[in-house]
Amino acid sequence: MRIKWTTLYVDDQDRALQFYTDTLGFQKKADFTQGNYRWLTVVSPEDPDGTELVLESNANPAGKAYQEAIRAQGRPAAQFLVNDVQAEHDRLVAKGVKFTVPVTSTTGSIIAVLDDSCGNLIQLVKLTWG
Predict the structure, then answer these.
(1) Which one, of 69, 103, 71, lies nearest residue 86 by Cα?
(2) What are 76-101's pLDDT values in tens digits?
């Protein structure tokens, strides 16, 4: 058993696609529609056949409620592993990305939390244990 897709609810799929590809550096993997539904995924260029992040419209009331509740708690909707949190932070700030938590050393990791401009907080993580 393995994880193939994981969902992130977004308030605008076109803006999310631009942010996750142009800003963060992911690659578009799938993009097709059927009626009002759009299946849109991105993947890490480091693992193009790996887990896909589904950029799901929050038009579904349950998805929107989940997204808003997680954000209201200040919790990240996703965590992305990086080699150097400070370098990624600096690269993304230069592109205009806003961070809600600066680069911070915590037990077992270095983190920073960014606003994806599509309704989510995303945590960048470098593990410092193991």
Answers:
(1) 103
(2) 999 999 999 999 999 999 999 999 99
Question: What type of residue is 67?
Answer: Q
The encoded tokens of residue 70 equal 């997680």
Give the predicted TM-score (pTM) of the model.
0.95
φ, ψ (nearest 5 deg) of residue 67: -60, -45
Token duo for residue 25:
């550096």
Query: Residue ranges per domain, the chain?
Result: 5-127
* CATH of region 5-127: 3.10.180.10
Q: Where on the phi/psi map is residue 32: left (φ > 0), alpha (ψ -120 to 50), or beta?
A: beta
DSSP letter at 128 equals: -
